[in-house]
Description:
By secondary structure, this protein is an alpha+beta fold. The protein contains 5 helices and 5 strands. Strand 3 (57-65) and strand 4 form a beta hairpin.
Amino acid sequence: MSNSSAGIASGGNTGKDKYLAVAIHQIIEEYGWKGIEKHFGGDHHMIYVKSGSPLDKVEVKAHKVGNRLDVNFLGITPKKGLLDKVFDFNVREIPKSFELHKYVSDDMTVLEEQHMTTIIGVVLKELEDVAED
């Protein structure tokens, strides 16, 4: 992954938060999720779908807070009834925080890639497990 993400986010004054958001995006796609919407800016927002998943989609919302990237992973299931439509009972959220210096070096190299991949894999599995209940 490091080689492909380097080409995407290596130019100019690209911030570590954007670089880390792109790395998270690529990891999610490695788990078989297809990115259908991506916005990398001040706030990062990505939407994914996966054939055969009990989830309609996964949304990832990330924003920089100081020296960390706060990431909210939202698993969205099909709306089954009126309460789901009114109260968003069909949405499950798992927040995670990534220290920028721990995951992206000053020369924009992804650090702790395996650890980050494991965290994201666990989050995706938890969201799908909740959706199946």
